[in-house]
Amino acid sequence: MEVRQALRKYFIMGSQNCNGDPKEILKQAANAGITAFQYREKGNGALQGFQRYLLGKQLRDICKQYQIPFFVNDDEELAEILDADGIHVGQDDKPAAELRRRFPNKWIGLSISNQAELNNSPIDSIDYLGVGPIFSTTTKEDAKVAVGTQWVKEVKHAYPHIPIVGIGGISVDNAASVMEAGADGVSIISAITNAKYIDQAVSQL
Ligand code: TZP
Ligand code: MG
């Protein structure tokens, strides 16, 4: 699979985002057609240690069963033990060029929120850019200021060949505007984890 295809409906979550069982939520989303999943066990109430690993392994197994690419947020050791297809990092994490040396065969995603970050990004070492927050979000406690779909256009213009996924405040109602701005896909936490009917939310996306 090409990374661009994987980005199309990219579901992200950890146990801290779920009211019910994360495994059931992932299964429902997988059944409904998500194209990638990122295990992001982070923030208030996130699991640690063995529990963190165990849930990751269970979610990884579900992704295998549904043939959905599995990404791990930040955690290199976890990405390695879980044999993740990819790893996603932010600006404050391990530099992408170093990650590339450690993981020559994994997809590497990097978050960028503004022009300075874009200018300083090792574009040659990564497979896709996570661009946002596009809209305001309460899911990430330390989210940067919302940048709007214009930011997607600017990144696309600067790097037409690099796959882009939008993130932050994306919902059934505004996802199309992110795609129209030039994104290859949308990444979503709460519009799926908080949906009354996950299957409907995923198919409407
Ligand atoms: N990075 C930028 S915004 C965000 C992350 C992880 C949270 C996205 O969550 P939601 O619920 O889809 O707005
Ligand atoms: Mg990070």
From TrEMBL:
Record's GO cellular component terms: cytoplasm
Keyword Metal-binding: yes
Domain Thiamine phosphate synthase/TenI: 10-192
Residues involved in Mg(2+) binding: D74, D93
UniProt entry tagged with the keyword Transferase: yes
Catalytic activity annotation: 2-[(2R,5Z)-2-carboxy-4-methylthiazol-5(2H)-ylidene]ethyl phosphate + 4-amino-2-methyl-5-(diphosphooxymethyl)pyrimidine + 2 H(+) = thiamine phosphate + CO2 + diphosphate; 4-methyl-5-(2-phosphooxyethyl)-thiazole + 4-amino-2-methyl-5-(diphosphooxymethyl)pyrimidine + H(+) = thiamine phosphate + diphosphate; 2-(2-carboxy-4-methylthiazol-5-yl)ethyl phosphate + 4-amino-2-methyl-5-(diphosphooxymethyl)pyrimidine + 2 H(+) = thiamine phosphate + CO2 + diphosphate
Keywords from the UniProt entry: Magnesium, Metal-binding, Thiamine biosynthesis, Transferase
Family annotation (InterPro entries): Aldolase_TIM, ThiamineP_synth_sf, ThiamineP_synth_TenI, TMP_synthase
Pfam families from the UniProt entry: TMP-TENI (PF02581)
Family listed: Belongs to the thiamine-phosphate synthase family.
Function: Condenses 4-methyl-5-(beta-hydroxyethyl)thiazole monophosphate (THZ-P) and 2-methyl-4-amino-5-hydroxymethyl pyrimidine pyrophosphate (HMP-PP) to form thiamine monophosphate (TMP).
Protein's UniProt name: Thiamine-phosphate synthase
Organism expressing this protein natively: Virgibacillus massiliensis
Upper lineage: Bacteria, Bacillati, Bacillota, Bacilli, Bacillales
